[in-house]
Amino acid sequence: MITAISFSTIAHSTEDISKVETAILNLLPDSMRRSQTVSAQEVVGHHGNPIWLVALGVREKASAGEISEYIMRLIPVADRLRIRDQLDLFYDGRSTLFLRLDKQNAFLREARLSSGDDVIRVKISFIGKRGDRGEVLKVFGLY
User: Fold this and answer.
1) 74-115 pLDDT, tens digit each
2) Mind listing the domains of the chain with CATH numbers?
3) Shortest CA distance to 11 belongs to which of 48, 56, 50, 51?
4) Integer Cα distance of 109 and 23 in angstroms
5) Rounded to whole angstroms, how far apart are CA atoms 42 and 38?
6) CB 54 within 8 A of CB 10
7) Which residues pair with 58 in a beta bridge?
8) Which of 8, 9, 40, 113 could form a Cys-Cys staple with 55, CB 3.0–4.6 A?
9) String of b and e for 34-57 (b: at least 16 CB within 10 Å)?
10) What is the distance between the alpha carbons of residues 52 and 129, in angstroms, rounded to a whole number?
């Protein structure tokens, strides 16, 4: 059972914050986009440049589960197979699945795994038997 889901990303001063917020909201089902609030906090980067920390967290179990299912449906089959086949890269062995989704694709309502820097980090927490890979695959529909 999914218990929570959170999204976070960094937006540089050259980016339109509203578009970054839209990219995150595009990873939610249409029915939930208006009811969720994305936060943005301005901070100073390593080189003194302004950057924004943009985030959204959902702790209501039913909503978090629905969002997780939605994201898994958005992710292309090849990426889902990569998660399944390389689960150790995405699963902490306890209760969390971590995904890095391309921010530009999310703005276009697509969910694609990325190993680059311009990503939305997705953290999905769930209740399950610790270390049980089969159960993880089942929870996320990856079997």
Assistant:
1) 999 999 999 999 999 999 999 999 999 999 999 999 999 999
2) 2-127 (3.30.1440.10)
3) 51
4) 7
5) 13
6) yes
7) 5
8) 8
9) eeeebeeeeeeeeeeeebbebbbe
10) 36
User: Which whole number is the average pLDDT over 122-139?
Assistant: 89
Which residues, 6 or more positions from 46, have their beta carbon under 8 angstroms from its beta carbon?
none
Residue (of 93, 142, 106, 100) closest to 26 by Cα position? 106
**CA 35/CA 80 separation, integer angstroms:** 28
Q: Write out the chain in H/E/C secondary structure.
A: CEEEEEEEEEEECCCCHHHHHHHHHCCCCHHHHCCCCCEEEEEECCCCCEEEEEEEEECCHHHHHHHHHHHHHHCCHHHHHHHHHCHHHCECCCCEEEEEEEHHHHHCCCCCECCCCCEEEEEEEECCCCCCHHHHHHHCCCC
Q: How many CA atoms lie within 13 A of 117 on its CB side?
A: 3
Q: Among 75, 62, 52, 82, which Cα is nearest to 122's? A: 75
